[in-house]
Amino acid sequence: MSKAKIEAFYNREGTFKEGLDRLRGLALQTELQEDLKWGTPVYTLKGKNVFGITSFKSHFGIWFFNGCFLKDPQGVLENAQEGKTKAMRHYTFSSSDEIIPEIVLAYMTEAIENQKKGLIHKLDKKKKTEIPAELHQVLEKDSRLKEAFKQLTPYKQREYCEYIESAKQLKTKQSRLAKILPMIREGLGINDRYR
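^ that's the sequence the OP posted. Answer follows.
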């Protein structure tokens, strides 16, 4: 953990600085360890991610890694990415005035207790990755590229396939394909730079 990087995150000026500071103050009242992952503060219990604090252009808040287990009596939690993530939930704010310390701390505490109970959302076992036609054609023409793709973990292969498949237009698929080919050759995953 880099304490200096965590401090830099919280010390940067911005619209939500006061709100982020208030959330951090509540997080530090818990038994969790403060860490920095993906460029943002994450609070962990015995090395397991419990929740993180971050900000975006129009809001800031807390994301709970296994938020699907939270009771949510206030009805404030939102699915992090509809359809993509099953476990993660966000509790968002648009101003620091919306933070009610007792309520926020209750959500944090419940998340910690759930982690201690071992409530972890198990990922669905996915069927074999379907390689999009555009990527398949390129792999069939280039044996080295095909071998490099095979060497990637199934997770990384799936990320590449979803990246191509999620493009709606052929032009976008082609530009994405051109972008990822060098990364595949290097054995990189599409999101390695964020990990």
